[in-house]
Amino acid sequence: MAKLLQVENLQTQFLTSAGVVRAxxxxxYDVDEGExxxxxxxxxxxxxxxxxxxxxxxxxxxxxIVGGRILFQGRDLLGLSEEEMRxxxxxxxxxxxxxxxxxxxPVLTIGRQLTEGLEIxxxxxxxxxxxxxxxxxxxxxxxxxxxxLTQYPHQFSGGMRQRMMVAMxxxxxxxxxxxxxxxxxxxxxxxxxILELMQDLSRRLGVAMLIITHNxxxxxxxxxxxxxxxxxxxxxxxxxxxxxxxxxxxYTLGLLRSVPRLDEPIRAKLDPIEGQPPDLTxxxxxxxxxxxxxxxxxxxxxxxxxxxxxxxxxxxxxWEAERLAKEVAA
Amino acid sequence: MLQYIFKRxxxxxxxxxxVAIIIFLLLRVVPGDVVEARYMAQGSQFLSQDLMDQERKKxxxxxxxxxxxTSWMGGxxxxxxxxxxxxxxxxxxxxxxxxxxxxxxxxxxxxxxTLLAIPLGILSAIKxxxxxxxxxxxxxxxxxxxxxxxxxxxxxxxxxxxxxxxxPMVYTPFWxxxxxxxxxxxxxxxxxxxxxxxxxxxxxxxxxxxxxxxxYIRTARAKGxxxxxxxxxxxxxxxLLPVITVIGLEFAFLLGGLVVTEQVFNLNGLxxxxxxxxxxxxxxxxxxxxxxxxxxFIFVNFATDIAYAWLDPRIRFR
Lengths: 330, 318
Hints:
Helices cover about 30% and strands about 25% of the residues of chain A. Chain A has helices spanning about 45-55, 80-90, 110-120, 125-140, 145-150, 160-170, 190-205, 215-220, 240-245, 250-255, 320-330, and strands spanning about 5-15, 20-30, 35-40, 65-70, 75, 95, 175-180, 210-215, 225-230, 235-240, 305-310, 315. Chain A has two domains: about 5-225, P-loop containing nucleotide triphosphate hydrolases (Rossmann fold), CATH 3.40.50.300; about 235-265 and about 270-330, no CATH class. With about 325 residues, chain A is α/β, with parallel strands linked by helices. In chain A, the strands form two sheets. Chain A has an eight-stranded mixed β-sheet with strand order 6-7-8-3-9-10-12-11, with helices on both faces. The radius of gyration of chain B is 24 Å and the shape is globular. Chain B starts with a helix and ends with a helix. The interface of A and B includes residues 90, 152 and 165 of A.
């Protein structure tokens, strides 16, 4: 499979009064055509910022992409002019945001917000764009789409708005959809519906997806490959199955153990990761997870590189990956 | 929507009735009446009680309060405000021309303020923290700091010294000679409009900055829209809401609140008439003026709310 997106050593920083926040600190990952890749990590680990960096929508002037390359179909997005980048946004790469309540403009109709991308990128006339908008709303499962087009976002429920966001993302037949916590703000029952819908559509239309989430449960069912991020870096990568069955990084292991499970006895204690995520303005030298890590050794003062472990394509940035594997297996 | 408008119009009636009662009572609580005021103005020191009582009887001031009130209200319902207690001429005649002048000045000043505030506010917001932003902010703060009558004096002096020309000092109604009319009124409109643009500019700037940080602006950018389209289609409508409130309130205030500016430009407007009516204790004229200005306020507020509903569907569909 051809590589659609390659993020190489991406570095994005924010200048704040407290100092330079290294939100994304040398991240690399890739997405194949038609593939669904997940970016997992807790809040503040830089996963959303890395997606915004791909779109070059990091809030300036505080936020800056200071290094790395973002190759999309072989073209470095960081080298494009703002005008060229505008053509990429919405047409080649589309985005679905976390908050369906605030991500739609309250004073414009659903139809207006759905057709503007079509008019700009595909040069459609009003009639054609409207017809396509009806088709799109039908595709994401909104009943009575023709009438719905004339309504405003406040007349839609949360789930419907997120369907609308998906329709908006699909409008111009993009190659890649960046979904930033697409279901976090929704009810659990609706979450499953939206994810099913996105998976179904991405397979049917051959669109690749980068799903950004803090929810490992989402990853298991919908992603082909998983990147686990911690403090601005990818610390483990592999197929979803591998990551679940054979985690090779203490942080991933911790994440898996801290998820409550329905098949455990009631009142069984959760096993949280001790300590707090590090302050991104003052990252410790070496492995950023070391202060919280039960497998810490002297070597952790050096930053471990992502290296192959176990199954092909499974990478972990941990000096003690082998010891971890043995203990988990035991 | 129609039901909403109808309800709002109906609500105006009790509001105006309340205003009428309050101004009626307030005027009579203030010491002195028109008869005393007149003799005072003539410089008489010893007044015969009989003479004053006779005068009061002529004006109907000897009647019990409720009767004075009902006869006044009866007139108002027929749109007849009665005679001025001071000059004795019909109030409708006294007010007509001055109302036209004040209304025209208020509209022109508001137009000046709006035309300054909206583009400057937007410019200031999108160029935040650049020299353009600072220049706009200094410009608008200066407008707020300078009283408009003083600015008016500067304008008149400037025109006189530089161009050896003075704007006409006698009011010509617009329908008689639009050119003369505008040549006179454009200057006070600029002076007052500049001052009133200051608050609106700041409001526009901060509303725009706030809206530009909203999630839906990011969504619009992620769709690949260019900046001008994002500003015009996605940001402006949302950012205008608070600005419209400010502009509406200012507009209503301008009708009767330009006492000093009117004097500087030798304009016979409602503001001056208001001050005179009160100092003469001219009950009927003051009451009429208060009712007119209050109705205007209520109407402008109503228009503002309609504009809100037009801009914001969340209000429209409630």
